Amino acid sequence: MLGSVNNLNQVYSQMSVRRRYEVWFIRLGLADGSGAWWFRYLLMNPGRGGCAGEPLGMPVQVWATWFPANGEPRSFIQGSPLDGFHLSPKGRSPFHFATADNAIHEDSCRGHLTVDGHDIAWDLRYSSTFGITLSDKGWIGFSRTPHSDAVFSGQILLDGRKFEGQPLGFGLQGHNCGYRHRNLWTWAHAYFRRPGTGPSTFEAVVYDMPLGLVFRKAVLWHEGKQHVFRKLREIQEDRTNLQWNFHGSAKDGSHLEVAIYGREPSLHRLPYLKTDCSGTFDVANNSMARATLRFEQPGRPPERLETADGAVLEMGGQA
Hints:
single chain; mainly beta; twelve-stranded antiparallel sheet; ten-stranded antiparallel sheet; 1 helix; 2% helix
């Protein structure tokens, strides 16, 4: 695996920091195609106790979102104070984040939420062969993926309905951090299951930087090799219907053509709280997105990768 899982999950924030978010998250597409799950373990502004008086302002939060196939997604969010919260020290391994019945570690997570009359519980284990830092801008923030081609096992319960399997599903475990959220970003990850051989994964991010600059990067993990694309040219970005099409080129002459579709019915919009506590902004996410990718390497015939529901597409901020 490229990049140590321990290093990629290590805590960046200190508990004294007054303005910062740090989140560990999971996107899990169920192996039977019945839906996908999105779990977030969030720490925000611990030095000031979150954002007092805000509905989404608790310093410790656990999110669970269910994306049923051909149905409307539903989110469940539960916050808690710092009392009883346990977090591994900054830059130390092994990593852990724990509050009440919710916890995430290097290769496992669990949770139990009771929200608006609904009961959600999960106990998962995961493994992978590839992890990467997609972007790292120091104190400004980073985007890391300790488990890019994750295979999940275990169970999830939703109001008595059980999802269980060995494996249960496929996806990623990520780790993001920042002084604030970017004003505008687009991010995607796709897990391509390939019968008879190992999976391929693709991840890309574009976001605004200071002084009018824009960060762009895409990474393809294919046949045990990492391909990095820094020259991305967008063809279409539809932030209303969640669609992203672009070309990419690498230093070795490789080329990509990517199309990711995240339209209804699985398109989900949620308010995120700003780290300065001044209000919220919308983030659109579809964790049951469709993706197609055409990959060309010098001297080799083009290859096509495709998934009908194994991708996640997210767009945040306002253009």
